[in-house]
Specification:
This protein is mainly α and 112 residues long. The chain has helices at residues 2-23, 35-49, 56-78, 80-94, 102-105. The chain has one domain (2-82).
C-alpha cells in the first residue's frame, strides 16, 4: 500500500508543481517552467485530443479527484477494522454523562 501511495502522490505532486510554476511563469531561469512551454504543452495536448486547450486542466483536476477517491477507498477498505474500532471508541467517549437533575436535589430557596 505504501508503494501505491508513493506512486500516486509523487506524479500528482510533480505535475501540479510544474503546472502552477509554469502557469505563473515562475521559471527559475529554466525553459521547462516557462509560460511558453506551458502554453505549448496544453496546445499540443489540445490538438491531439481535439479539444480546447483551456479545458484540459479542469479535466485533469477532475481525474485527480476521482483517482484520489479510489485510492482512499482502497486504503479505507484495507484498514476498515482499525477505522471501525476507532469510530466505536470515539462514539463511546462522545456520549454525554447524564447530570443529576435539579428536581432530585429538592427545591432550595435562593440565597439572601
Amino acid at each position: 500500500m505504501r508503494y501505491i501511495l508513493i506512486f500516486w502522490a509523487l506524479p500528482l505532486g510533480i505535475f501540479w508543481g510544474w503546472y502552477f510554476l509554469s502557469y505563473y511563469d515562475i521559471n527559475f531561469g529554466l525553459l521547462f517552467f516557462s509560460r511558453v512551454v506551458h502554453d505549448f504543452a496544453f496546445q499540443f495536448y489540445g490538438d491531439i485530443l481535439g479539444i480546447e486547450p483551456s479545458t484540459i486542466p479542469p479535466l485533469v483536476a477532475r481525474a485527480c479527484v476521482v483517482d484520489t477517491g479510489i485510492i482512499m477507498a482502497i486504503f479505507a477498505f484495507r484498514k476498515r477494522k482499525a477505522i471501525m474500532s476507532w469510530w466505536r471508541e470515539r462514539q463511546a467517549s462522545a456520549l454525554p454523562v447524564m447530570p443529576v437533575a435539579a428536581s432530585e436535589a429538592g427545591r432550595v430557596p435562593p440565597a439572601e
